[in-house]
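ok here's the first one, seq then struct tokens
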Amino acid sequence: MVDEEPLDEETLRKIERSLEDLRAGRVYTLEEVMTELKEGERRGRRGDGPR
């Protein structure tokens, strides 16, 4: 299925910003993200971090 609606300016800006991040190497590996999420869960269960 193809969406025929054109993208709005805000969406186009966000895509361009994302591409700039990729080109500059501002990315996280899946492993880094999973580690961060697990640490957040542990903080939440201990009650010493935001939920």
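and now the second one, same deal
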Amino acid sequence: MLKKDKQKVFKDVWSDDHIKSFLERAPYGDENPDFYALNIAYRYMVADDFARFVAFFKEAGRDIEATGPEGKNMKQLLAEHPNGEDYLAAL
């Protein structure tokens, strides 16, 4: 149990291959695959790893402006999240 004044520390270092594997993630339904990959990377990665993912994503020619089921792209979605600033900057 952590004391209230202590924060969790994540020491996992993700390899480039692990980060690139998120490019291969595919949605189960008809969701836009580019939006899905960005969204799942955002949900599982810390901001620094997400920034690395975005570089690989762009290098692969993927659509950074892809929209999700609600018609929003990741920039719009991240702008609504209280801790999304670092992730938004990566885009």
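notes on #2: The chain is about 45% helix and 0% strand. The two ends are 35 Å apart (CA to CA).
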